[in-house]
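User: Okay, second chain of the day. Same drill as before: sequence in, structure tokens out.
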Amino acid sequence: MGQYAICQRGKPHWVSYLRTKALPQYPAVEQSVIEGWRKHLTKTMGLPPKKQGDIYARNCAMTLDALRRKPRDQHADLLKHDAWTFYNAAMRGDTKLFLAVGRLLGKGGQSDYLKQFEYTQAILSRWLTDYYWLMPAKLVSYRLSSGLRVQDNFRSFLAAKTRYGLKSHRPTLIHGFEKVSPGMEAIVLTPEGKHLLGPKGKHLLH
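Assistant: Same drill. Structure tokens below.
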């Protein structure tokens, strides 16, 4: 999904991303993101890795997760959208799904859950494509919180990074950002970043 979003930005952004993807440490970092998503599915949807390939189990988990996140006025549309899942549940005699739905419909707001969900989603989805893995931790924490418009909490970021086992490039290759025009900024590479990404690295897009 992240790579698709980069393609939509245009060829220069895609070429820029491919330069970082060619770095020797990329495969290990990418694998850590994959494992992170698996942990996220297990934690937020209650779906263990061995069941993540089961279409029915995955659909049930996604339905329950959506009910936790969606506001009450959207629940009716969500239930209609997932009618096929409920039909399958009825045919299987899966009463646990209906009991779980009933409990969720009877609960109040899920603001804390939603905040945690969005924060984790942002980290995992942007780790590679927004070059978080090339930046120092404090810079990632700041840019992540700015993008989500929440207060920067470095400890919370480090806890999430550790919880999901996300790896970073060693040493860091991005020093920071500088404004080049209103609403536009350029990536500033470290000396090592300039060496590894080559002369064109100074034009790295994000």
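The first strand starts at residue 174 and ends at 181.

User: Thanks, on to the next one.
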